[in-house]
Amino acid sequence: MTRSTWHDHAWQLVHEPPQSPALHMALDDVLVDEVSAGRRGPTLRIWEWASPAVVIGRFQSLRNEVDMEAARRHGIEVVRRISGGGAMFIEPGNTITYSIFAPIGMVEGMGFEQAYALMDAWVLAALGELGIQAWYQPLNDIASPAGKIAGAAQARRGKAVLHHVTMAYDIDADKMLQVLRIGREKLSDKGTASAQKRVDPLRSQTGLAREAIIAAFVDSFRRRHGGLAPGPLRADELERAHAMARDKFSTEAWTALVP
User: Fold this and answer.
1) 6-249: in CATH 3.30.930.10
2) Residue 5 pLDDT exceeds 90
C-alpha cells in the first residue's frame, strides 16, 4: 500500500466553544471512529477547556500519577484518555490542546517515532515562525532550549490514527506539583523554579495572546497541507460523545481502570 500525504486529503477544522474534560475524551474516541469509518474527513480539532483537569494516559496508574486529595481541593477533574503517554495538567486559558484524526495510510509502515515526527512537523514550523526554536524529542515531547513545550500521544484504531498534543501556554507550576505526583518526585529537590524551566510556557517565549498562537497554528496547517475547511461537529457525533462522556469517561470504573 502506498503511503498517503497531507495533500492527498481534504482536511476539516473543528473548533468548538469550551467543553468539559470528559466530553473532550469522548470526542477523541468518537471522531477517530468516524474518520476510520469514512463518515468524516481527516480532521484537526482544537480544544477549548471548560474547567481544569488532569488527563492521564490509557495505561497509567491513577494513584501513582495523581494526588487525588490535592485535585479535589483545587477543583480539578481527573480523566483518562484512550491513548498512552503521560499525565497532563490542564487549566483553561493556560493550555493549547489539539487532536489530529488522520487516515492510517499516512503512517503506513511507520513506527511510533516516525509517526510522531510526521504529525508534529507542521507545528514545529509554526513555532519557528513565532520565533521559538523547537524540535521533536522522541518519543512524545516537543522541546525548546528553555524547556519542554508540549507532550503528545497517539492511538491507532481501524483505518485512522489519533495524534493529540497538549502545550503549556502558561502554567501554575506550584499547583501542578501539588496535583501530579510524578512531577513532584522529579522536581522535589529542585524547587518550583525548576518546574517552570522543565515545562516552559509559550506565553513567556512569544509574548503573544493564546488566541494569536492558535491562529498561527491554524494558518501553518492550512498553508502546509493544502487547506483546512470548517467541519463542525455533527449532531450525531455530539450526541454519541455526550453519551460516552456520561457512561464511560466520567465513571470511576474507567478513570481507575489502572488503580
Assistant:
1) yes
2) yes
- Report the pLDDT value the prediction gives residue 194, as an integer from 0 to 100: 46
* pLDDT band with cut points at 50, 70 and 90 for residue 195: very low
Q: In sequence order, which residues have a C-beta less than 8 Å from that of residue 60 and are 6 or more positions away?
A: 80, 86, 87, 258
- Specify the pTM: 0.93
Query: At CB < 8 A and 24+ separation, what contacts does 215-223 make?
Result: 216/126, 216/129, 216/130, 217/46, 217/96, 217/98, 217/123, 217/126, 218/13, 218/15, 218/44, 218/46, 219/126, 220/122, 220/123, 220/125, 220/126, 220/129, 221/11, 221/44, 221/122, 221/123, 221/126
Domain boundaries, the chain: 6-249
User: CA angle at residue 221 from 218 to 223, to 5 degrees?
Assistant: 105
4, amino acid identity: S
In which residue are the cell numbers 509554526 written?
126
